[in-house]
């Protein structure tokens, strides 16, 4: 690897890790979020980044895939550190071992990548579904991390679910507690079924989220709102992909999405 001094400028196709991390931290405004996830650089690897991999989750599989593909940086939505001390044993040790042995940087962006107006999971889905008059929605730890908007023309619940299915490639689970038509939609990727009361209070007729919690099953029917569950994983592929593409635009870094679906 060509050594780079502090004074040398970044050239297209490669960037100093510290510069890239500073750019990401600023672009994603990670300091603005109270999050159980440790957002930012979680594992320090090689000091120069030339190739990026992106995945939703951090696992032995995704880390090994990133290492095998020659990536210098793995960009993830779900990182390794979630607000509690972890002994370096078992699978956690193995994950760290793979990254450190491969000199792989691991950067995690959780809530900041749900919420981001350009590359966020929810903004990306709203654009793909052509929602209009999009506003922030879905309060979490003092920040709105989702979006709400209107479909361009009234759709049946079935048509809306079909559009979501086309977008994610997975069959949706629909709890039709609202009316038969869809006009005003809230989107909250991942595990967002606890947003049902907030969505209903805002007069939204439909909530699109990822994964249902069993305790929220009755809420859809009792609050009178449709809930479309499109998968935790499948609703969170958008952000890391868009962010990696942004790094390509910004720094000329080639990237690859590592698809390891969970089916959840
Ligand atoms: Zn998630």
Tell me what the structure shows.
With 264 residues, the protein is of the alpha/beta class. It folds into 2 domains: 119 residues, 3-Layer(aba) Sandwich (Udp-n-acetylmuramoylalanyl-d-glutamate--2,6- Diaminopimelate Ligase, Chain: A, domain 1); 120 residues, 3-Layer(aba) Sandwich (Udp-n-acetylmuramoylalanyl-d-glutamate--2,6- Diaminopimelate Ligase, Chain: A, domain 1). Helix content is 32%, strand content 27%. It contains 9 helices and 13 strands. The strands form 3 sheets. A 6-stranded mixed beta sheet has the order 7-8-10-11-12-9. Strands 2-6-5-4-13 form a 5-stranded mixed beta sheet, sandwiched between helices. Helix 8 links the parallel strand 11 and strand 12. Helix 2 runs parallel beside helix 3 and helix 5 crosses helix 9. The radius of gyration is 19 Å and the shape is elongated. The N terminus is likely disordered. The structure holds zinc ion.
- Separate helix tally: 9
The CATH topology of the largest domain corresponds to: Udp-n-acetylmuramoylalanyl-d-glutamate--2,6- Diaminopimelate Ligase, Chain: A, domain 1
Number of domains: 2
Tell me the helix content: 25-40%
- Assembly type: single chain
Distance between the termini: 40 Å
Query: What is the correct CATH architecture of the largest domain?
Result: 3-Layer(aba) Sandwich
Protein name: GTP cyclohydrolase 1 type 2
Keywords: Metal-binding
Family: Belongs to the GTP cyclohydrolase I type 2/NIF3 family.
InterPro entries: DUF34/NIF3 (IPR002678), DUF34/NIF3_sf (IPR036069)
């Amino acid at each position: 690897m060509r050594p780079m001094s502090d004074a040398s400028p970044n050239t297209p196709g490669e960037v100093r890790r510290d510069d890239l991390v500073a750019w990401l931290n600023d672009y994603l405004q990670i300091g603005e979020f109270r999050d159980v996830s440790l957002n930012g650089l979680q594992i320090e690897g090689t000091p120069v980044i030339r190739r990026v991999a992106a995945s939703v989750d951090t696992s032995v599989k995704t880390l090994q895939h990133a290492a095998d593909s020659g990536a210098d940086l793995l960009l993830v939505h779900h990182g390794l550190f979630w607000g509690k001390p972890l002994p370096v044993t078992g699978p956690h040790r193995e994950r760290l071992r793979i990254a450190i042995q491969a000199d792989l940087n691991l950067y995690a962006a959780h809530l900041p990548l749900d919420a981001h107006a350009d590359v966020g999971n929810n903004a990306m889905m709203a654009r793909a579904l052509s929602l209009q008059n999009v506003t922030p929605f879905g309060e979490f730890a003092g920040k709105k991390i989702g979006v709400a908007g209107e479909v361009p023309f009234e759709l049946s619940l079935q048509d809306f679910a079909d559009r979501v299915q086309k977008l994610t490639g997975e069959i949706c689970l629909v709890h039709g507690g609202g009316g038969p038509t869809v006009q005003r939609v809230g989107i909250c990727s991942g595990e967002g079924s606890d947003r049902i009361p907030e969505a209903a209070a805002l007069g939204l007729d439909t909530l699109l989220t990822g994964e249902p919690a069993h305790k929220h099953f009755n809420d859809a029917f009792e609050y009178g709102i449709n809930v479309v569950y499109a998968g935790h994983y499948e609703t969170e592929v958008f952000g890391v992909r868009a962010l990696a593409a942004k790094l390509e635009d910004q720094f000329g870094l080639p990237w690859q999405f590592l698809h390891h679906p969970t089916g959840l």
